[in-house]
Amino acid sequence: MDAPGSLILGLIDGLIALAIVALAFGATALRDLFAGVVLFIAMGLLMALAWVRLAAPDLALAEAGIGAGLAGALLLAAVRRLAGPAHPEGIGDDEQP
Amino acid sequence: MSSPEDNAPVLLRGIAALLAAALGVAIAGALTALPPSSGLRDAVTGQMPASGVAHPVTAVLLNFRGYDTLLEVAVLLLALIATWSLRLARPPAGRDRPGLVLQALVRLLVPLFIVLAGYLLWLGAHAPGGAFQAGALLAGAGVLLTLAEGRPLGPLAPAALRGLAVLGVAVFLAVALLALGGGRLLEYPRGQAGLLILLIEAASTVSIGLALAYLFRGDEPVPPERRP
Q1: B103 pLDDT exceeds 90?
Q2: C-alpha angle with apex B219: A45 to A30, nearest 5 degrees?
Q3: Is B95 on the interface with A (CB under 8 A)?
């Protein structure tokens, strides 16, 4: 590969690595649970990119599908339940004082 | 909303951060100090013709280290059984009516997801893909259906759904036990490894998809007469 090409790829790799660490920090440090989950999903997608750059497309597929997609959906559902009414029955039986 | 960690003193947090950073540096140092090695690559490449598939990752997952994958599928089933045993959760949808656009989009996407899952499953024999990725796609379709329709998945009775959830582990175990007759656990007979791997992967795909989708829903399967 020519030198400018590998330089640009190296820059992109560095950016991906930095962004993963920053997103991971944000996902755990944010007080807003919803925002934390969104950062977690974004981190999962960048992790998938990192696996592609490390020539591990199998892991990239699994990380994007399960790590970012399904785990993200699970966490979003959990956040919604945490914020929802105390009764698991949901609508109709909220007895707000 | 305040948790006990909110009140942790700054000094304690600083010490924890320092220790974590030190551990990270130590691990990074240990990694760079490792002697250069090709790992098990040569051993895997040497045995590829006997594995029944053309993709090294699938060969390791389903043949050379099939035992690990069997346990993984079993762990997923165990998590599903535990979730169903809690009998607490309701499906996450229901508060606001999903829009027509979402429902129409889901009706277009779900068949596409199912076809793509079949493609990934078939692709696993000679390229990146396989049961877990295909199962994740199926589960994604299940999550979309849950969000758009807010009702139980499909017309299947609970007994059938439970059967499908167990199918992957059951087929995996059956193949493992059959192989016991001619040798050791999960040592496929020569020449039939490819077919057996495809069989195991197909069954696991359905079970993995069902398990992941129902882990998201959190509810038990409901018989048709008790559905809203």
Answers
A1: no
A2: 40
A3: yes
